[in-house]
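Hi R.,

As promised, here are both runs. First protein below:
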Amino acid sequence: MSVAQLSGGRVSAAAIRAARREPLVIAAYVVLAVVVLLAVAGPWLAPYDPDELYTGPVMGAASLAHPLGTDDLGRDILSRLLVAARASLVAPIFVVLISTVLGAAIAILCAWFGGIIDAVFSRIIEVIFAIPGLVLAVLAVAMFGKGLLAPVLALSIAYIPIIARLVRTNARTELAKPYIAALRVQGVGPFATCFRHLVPALLPALLAQATVGFGYAMLDLAAISYLGLGVQPPAADWGVMIAAGQPSILAGAPEQSLFPALMIVITVVAVNIAGARVTAWAEGRDR
């Protein structure tokens, strides 16, 4: 037996042991993989055009032709659910990426230079932190119009203080350690110190906060669409579907709201579980 085969056998055995020890984490990874697949291939997997009216009976029950039933306009719920996955996942990802990059950059800048730079940015961050993200998103929609772009940018700005305050505290602690002083004595430049040493040390905290931020961003964007300020009908979005199906609940047909709500809950829970595991691995607590 070759070394590669032995190594592959050890990796497979370790993976099997990890799966047995943490089945909930494995289930979370599987759920996320399925959701990502739906977001990528949803338009091709959808059995009907998501905007096609009266593909079946109005508020029709589940059937072979419509596995999840039809909505109040006779549109196939499964098709709309699949197509809506892309917008419902991509928008929160952009919020997390923008807020994490900008928040971490501002925090490292404040921690590194301190003084007036730290004081000015800290005051600005405190002012932004005092404004709820959802309120800021509504104000952005009022100024720039309905759609996803304004809420995504507004929520990105609203989440920057959360990232910045966390990273600034950790960065100040890290910069006070002896190895940073040793690097400076050796003549290592600030950029090399930050990107090679400081940023990797801050990654566990960033991963943890980004995971939590994704869940909040998904819920906030769904709420904005639910209020009619985000994705506009007839475009498919999980928040839009929940709002459109609300009257149907009283008519005894909750499917239109139930399934997108379940998708949001399941996705957020899976992200939090998987994110906690990734954070533990990044911190070196993976055993």
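And here is the second one, sequence first, then its structure tokens:
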Amino acid sequence: MTRAQFLKLMLGGAGVLALPPLAAQSARYDFWFTRLRYDSGDWDVDARMPSNVLTSLIDYTNLRVDPEERVVALSDPKMLAAPFCYLAGHKLVEFNPAERRNFERYVRSGGFVFVDDCNHDIDGLFAKSFEAQVAAIFGAGALKKLPNSHPLYSSFFRFPDGPPATSFELNGWGDDLVHDYLKGIEIDGRLAVLYSNKDYGCEWDYDWRNKRFLADDNTKFAVNIVMYALTA
């Protein structure tokens, strides 16, 4: 299933997923921010970030944006209706059977997940455990480095040098290195999982309202991520 087909299905078309009526309730929006709650680790980080990202989408785009963050359990089939999902933390990630089943089904069916490592740990626990989970689901070589020419970096604003740096990247992927790239998992030629070790959540958690429309507004890259998720 392509992303366009997935979004058409989720925004009101009859389809094969037999989901609860969440999509119909959301048909008046082009985008809503869904944070995934998972049983292990600490999923509820960077509380102000979604609000700041949603404000940027309203400021910079013509999308009909739901102004409220939605928190949905990864184990809940309702998450399958989201056009975009966010998963973050800095502790253990260990999917239970229902979480693993929904994560795989969502990704393979056309969904998009942005995974951000808060990396405030010492030994890269979030990175190591999340990578182990996706390797078990999609294969050991599924996570790949994204080139700076990837369409993600030109989906709205242009980032010719790849992912913008942040102030909070403390431990990389547990290797004490600052990386100039992101990773991802592609399904049928589309980026389905975007994986960051740069702690964008903390960067966007600050109040950027006084920097709206300025070149140093780091939430511009969040706009790119969302626009790619909706259009690729």
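A quick note on the second one: Confidence is low (pLDDT under 50) at residues 11-25. Let me know what you think.

Best,
J.
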